[in-house]
Write a structure and sequence with these properties.
Oligomer: single chain
Helix content: 40-55%
Structural class: alpha+beta
Number of strands: 8
Strand content: 15-25%
Distance between the termini: 21 Å
Shape: globular
Number of helices: 7
């Protein structure tokens, strides 16, 4: 039988995602600019909505509706699955160093167990989203499933595929020999999405 051990359970008292950190969207826009697709992006989003997004600078929250409009516009760009995954990889590279700090790891030994990092990663995720719940499941010695409930952003292909690349590279950059990060379909009826990480 398949192993299924809850490492960190859901906290459904948080309700659905209401807002995200502004930096999440602004770093995504910077990525679009670096790809030379900003003009196409602007053509895909309501002008007043984009102005509102650009006004919300600095630390703080951005309503999830604005984030949805942003990722919806990204979804309509002429990007392949591979290009979206690569954008997620670049974001994950930046997050890895923050994860080390969050887990209070002073050094990276040659063999690092991903399970030591789960609590820090969970705390970081909760700080990025106001609302939404995430459960961490151990499916085997080297297999982790992360189940998200209540986050409508996963309805967008761009966000799902980018998240897969992000998760892959975040764990890779802290010394985990990740083999695969498999993303699921989005189940709109329950606002449910999961990604399964496998490593050596």
């Amino acid at each position: 039988p398949c192993m299924r051990e809850i490492v960190i359970p859901h906290d459904l008292t948080r309700g659905p995602v209401r807002a995200v950190r502004r930096m999440l969207v602004h770093s995504s826009i910077a990525e679009i600019q670096q790809l030379g697709l900003y003009d196409e992006y602007r053509a895909n989003i309501d002008k007043a909505t984009l102005e509102h997004i650009l006004e919300l600078i600095g630390p703080g929250w951005m309503p999830v509706e604005l984030a949805q409009a942003h990722y919806g516009a990204c979804n309509r760009l002429s990007l392949s699955d591979e290009q979206i995954h690569a954008a997620g990889l670049r974001a994950g590279e930046k997050m890895g160093s923050q994860l080390i700090v969050g887990a209070q790891i002073s050094s990276l030994p040659s063999e690092r167990s991903a399970w030591e990092l789960i609590a820090a990663f969970s705390r970081m995720g909760r700080r990025m989203h106001e609302g939404g719940s995430t459960q961490y499941l151990k499916l085997g010695p080297s297999k982790l499933q992360i189940e998200h409930v209540g986050n409508p952003l996963f309805a967008e292909r761009y966000y799902r595929l980018g998240h897969g690349g992000f998760m892959y590279q975040t764990f890779k950059s802290v010394g985990i020999d990740v083999i695969d990060a498999k993303v699921s379909n989005f189940r709109a009826d329950k606002l449910l999405f999961d990604v399964t990480l496998t490593w050596k």
